[in-house]
Amino acid sequence: MATATLGELATLVGGRVIGDPDLQVRRLASLDEAAEGDITFVSHKRYLAKLSQVRASAVILSHPVEGLAIAQVICANPYLAFAKVLTHLQVRRPEPQGIMAGARVAASAVIGEGVTVHPGCVVGERVSIGRGTILYPGVVLYEGVTVGEDCTLHANVVVREDCRIGNRVIIQPSAIIGSDGFGYAPDGSSYFKIPQVGIVVLEDDVEIGSATCVDRAALGVTRIKRGAKIDNLVQIGHNCVIGEDTVMVSQVGISGSTTVGRHCTFGGQSATAGHLKVGDNVTIGGRGGVTRDVEPNQVLSGLPVMPHKEWLKAQMCVPKLPEMRKEITSLRQKLEDLEKSLKER
Amino acid sequence: MATATLGELATLVGGRVIGDPDLQVRRLASLDEAAEGDITFVSHKRYLAKLSQVRASAVILSHPVEGLAIAQVICANPYLAFAKVLTHLQVRRPEPQGIMAGARVAASAVIGEGVTVHPGCVVGERVSIGRGTILYPGVVLYEGVTVGEDCTLHANVVVREDCRIGNRVIIQPSAIIGSDGFGYAPDGSSYFKIPQVGIVVLEDDVEIGSATCVDRAALGVTRIKRGAKIDNLVQIGHNCVIGEDTVMVSQVGISGSTTVGRHCTFGGQSATAGHLKVGDNVTIGGRGGVTRDVEPNQVLSGLPVMPHKEWLKAQMCVPKLPEMRKEITSLRQKLEDLEKSLKER
Amino acid sequence: MATATLGELATLVGGRVIGDPDLQVRRLASLDEAAEGDITFVSHKRYLAKLSQVRASAVILSHPVEGLAIAQVICANPYLAFAKVLTHLQVRRPEPQGIMAGARVAASAVIGEGVTVHPGCVVGERVSIGRGTILYPGVVLYEGVTVGEDCTLHANVVVREDCRIGNRVIIQPSAIIGSDGFGYAPDGSSYFKIPQVGIVVLEDDVEIGSATCVDRAALGVTRIKRGAKIDNLVQIGHNCVIGEDTVMVSQVGISGSTTVGRHCTFGGQSATAGHLKVGDNVTIGGRGGVTRDVEPNQVLSGLPVMPHKEWLKAQMCVPKLPEMRKEITSLRQKLEDLEKSLKER
């Protein structure tokens, strides 16, 4: 925890202060929970009404509010400013501890300055860890792994042999990087395991969620590109490529050898078949299922996916299906009756 | 393992004995596998026929069966009685072992009486562990965690900083409590991580399944209330509240800031969008997808969810869709033909 | 890494050489990445065109290609041959290391010859480990577990008490074998935990993916039969039986007490309800949902599942639903108009 003046925070977020720029705040809190000495934020105008009762000492806003009793920090993007101010006030990287008692680090490993390796970690032969990186307890790095600078690998993360992790990568607890891809050659009615001799590369600024699995390539590389953010319990198959700044929500499944473009968003439990290409700036709705290549710049949902708006309309019809069937039967009957009565005339 | 007399077991389950109350049994077994010396149970009348061939020495029943050669324990709820008798006969909490060699416990941690901390555990600064709690090997408690009394944390469970766990909580292996919620502020085409500075609270008598993830709140608390039972591989997003005695089957996904009422049941792979409210006593069928607030006391299925019975009927129509389309085309054709022929008359 | 002559590789895969059988190759690589000294393969004729530009020294083919500049290994099944050659050239089982410093092995455990137990492993009382088996760091074997010969248990795998693992079993990192099945007896509005006192048996040649959960039986056995291959993040409920050589792709969920036949294939995110029987040689498409027993030798998709071809046709109609509804309304209107005009004649 730290304190900051409103002036300092305005500089941090590229904004300006209405009120006393020397006012100190010590905590960012939500509109409902903020108390004196706190700064809060309004990221959507529907919450502006709450400002009349707020107990905070300052508020981050996109536009000045007249007659407000508390100080204001005005900036273009209050939600981004909230994230930056929260980071500034309340996130402290722990002091480096070096290789702590109870950690096992192979003699041939190269450990940078300011690294922390907690008890219970096992670091294999020829591993390289960049400066400032933290391994929480129980992290296992197999031989030949490289981890960049200022990374955070949370407890019980496993990185298998020869995988490469960039800088500022965050891996939540128990994620698994570089387990074998799922590949077998049919051999009569049984299966012969295809060795998975490729690797995984996580580029800079990637974040990987808890218990998420990124499988190593059969041959070559499974790659998560710069800035991609992957939530918990996601499966990324072998030889996939996930583009820069792409976001995947929990429980997504990407089958092997699929390439996803940059700046895509995959909703929870959505999935793709294997060997597909998904273009840039594609949004797949929750539980969408991609079974063919997808052109860039689309919003799709359903199984198989269709334009999201079409899907919304189609899904509204599903509860009407029994009625539709009855109606068709009734129409047929009426038509037959009519034909019959005409014949009889 | 232990033995008990039928009289003792009848007292345990609030029932009565038909036969010798001093008869000793040593094991509860299924109808098919029970042998002499065992007690078995019938929880549904469709299994009563099997009683003629049972080799058990006693049986738990809801109503007396005439002419049965073996002793009977009669009680209101044989299925609950089965669980209680099985617990009584075959579940022994291991003897406390204290802090075992190979465990690492911070000096500032407060460890209750009768606690067992297995080798490979790492217990951080200012952790508190209540009496009788067991940590199996590889459990990692980050700094500031509190764990109540008589809890069982299975191997490789991770609880991140400051999270709070009640009494009699059971956490299956490799579950992750308190990993970062999935929150980013768009910053141009990239994303800026929103620090997740809240916590997770698991109240008394909660059970969490293997590899299940309960994310810490961004600000505030993600709360699993008293008695909720969460199966394996479930995702609970940041700032969710899960009500008392709510049950979630494997692979469920609850998106952030959603509040689920008490005594709900979520079937396997079902999910909710974020920022929703689900009322009390709601049942969501397997793979149901909740996209709006849900009133209490309903049984819903489908994506988006609808009343379960409607969904059953609607799903039965899906295979008929191609036929329905053809029928509509044919009806249109017939109608046009009819109109044409009428004009020509 | 090793080298081999084409003659040796032809013998390995049951094929024959066109070219110099004494030619040495040192690596298997894909058509695009192969360089001099490498062997490559063509498993589908659509890739034959690439052979004109390949830089490999040899290629595995199903039929001879005339006029090819490089040596050929001709065999019946090039994809299987690829797997075998890759294994031969590039997979080396690590030298046994015994019980390494930092591993904890109970005094009563029986450890075979040539076993490796890495640092951070915890092996409980009365565990038995067959010769040649490797436990990577952080593996936890509870008391009474038996592991066969030549198994590989990757980092942070947990096997709970008394479970039995056959020979040549591979378990990817952080898989959980033998956690409690999800069983509770309703007790008023709360739940009473049903002790899960059964075990899990993984038979020979099974492979289990990362973070996959195989729950122990309530009473009796959860069994994965010989040769079954289970991908990452899969849930297998208590008392299930999975047949020989059955394949389950990532994120599949099999509910409790379901029996799946041999040589089945379950696509990603597919699932079954509990207490079902699925016959042999059944294929369930991605995200298929099985809600009733399934006869052998079928290909099914959808929720609930239907024949795959029916499902494909039905799904193509879904985006047309709004149009179909409109059409029905319009037909009804036309028919009414027609009836009316006829009455008026």
From TrEMBL, chains A, B, C:
Residues 22-87 form the UDP-3-O-[3-hydroxymyristoyl] glucosamine N-acyltransferase non-repeat region domain. Pfam families: Hexapep, LpxD. Pathway: Bacterial outer membrane biogenesis; LPS lipid A biosynthesis. Its EC number is 2.3.1.191. SUPFAM superfamilies: Trimeric LpxA-like enzymes (SSF51161). The active site is at residue 238. Keywords: Acyltransferase, Lipid A biosynthesis, Lipid biosynthesis, Lipid metabolism, Repeat, Transferase. It comes from the Bacteria. Gene3D superfamilies: Hexapeptide repeat proteins, MurE/MurF, N-terminal domain. It catalyses: a UDP-3-O-[(3R)-3-hydroxyacyl]-alpha-D-glucosamine + a (3R)-hydroxyacyl-[ACP] = a UDP-2-N,3-O-bis[(3R)-3-hydroxyacyl]-alpha-D-glucosamine + holo-[ACP] + H(+). HAMAP family: LpxD (MF_00523). Homotrimer. Catalyzes the N-acylation of UDP-3-O-acylglucosamine using 3-hydroxyacyl-ACP as the acyl donor. Is involved in the biosynthesis of lipid A, a phosphorylated glycolipid that anchors the lipopolysaccharide to the outer membrane of the cell. Belongs to the transferase hexapeptide repeat family. LpxD subfamily. This is UDP-3-O-acylglucosamine N-acyltransferase. It comes from Desulfuromonas versatilis. The gene is lpxD.
